[in-house]
Specification:
With 285 residues, this protein is mainly alpha-helical. The protein is 65% helix and 0% strand. The chain contains nine helices and no strands. The longest helix has 48 residues. It starts with 5 loop residues before the first helix and ends with a helix.
Amino acid sequence: MEPGDIAVVTETLNNAFGEQEPDAAWPNALLSAARNAVDDNSSDYVDLLVRELEGSLLEELERQPVEVLFRQIAYHSVAYMALTRCGMNASHYIGREDLSGIGNFNTLPALSQLGAAISDIAEMMLREIESTIRVQRRVERQTSQARDVRTVARETALTQNEAKRLPERTDEHGSDLHPSRGLSAARPDTDRGSSTDRQVWMLRKNYLKTEKKGTYASLLLSGELHQHLTEIDRSARTQLEQTMNELLRLHPAPDKASDPLGWTGYMNSLKQQVEETILTELIYN
């Protein structure tokens, strides 16, 4: 976490776990999200927990007081983990007394179930935060690269012969990448059976078969391989289109009418950088 990430992470937590208090300042927004995450997911975990209370100090309690105690402990524990992972001193917000109820789960089965539940809920929050920051870093990196590309594109023009060898684009922004790379922008109405549209699919499938053999075998045997490849294909195309649109919004290409060679060089260089990111972070990961 960096200071510049707070606003977008807060928005992500609002969307994932419910709106916070109006104008809630960080880290209060994080604490509120932790409480909402626990409240939204506690029922199923308590159902599992009450089966593991034999021999513990909670054995004779009804379900309701067990759930109240679980929510209190889980909230403070999840919040403590999230605060720590986001670079804050959690002890400034959560004290020893807030976690003292853990002592009631005094058998290994009860404590293990409690720990598993807290870990799962904390992971839900942390993955939302991690995903958001990863996107932030990617946009920052590609924005920086786009500035460099724009500078080069304005300083160096393509020769006429080089321009003739470049594939023609049918849209203004040129959302498709080089056909040889096998990635094209998301198009809902495109015939999914065409060879071009299946290249993303095949890149991922071949990577799993050669580099992730265990994962490939598991997906194949479970019947989930087709769904996995479809999701990767859809995600790659969506990421390509969204990232290109965002970078072009922040750093527009040279005017196509007055500087066609500069526009072509800029767009091709920009798309190549975005494509490499998709290959590294999505297809070959």
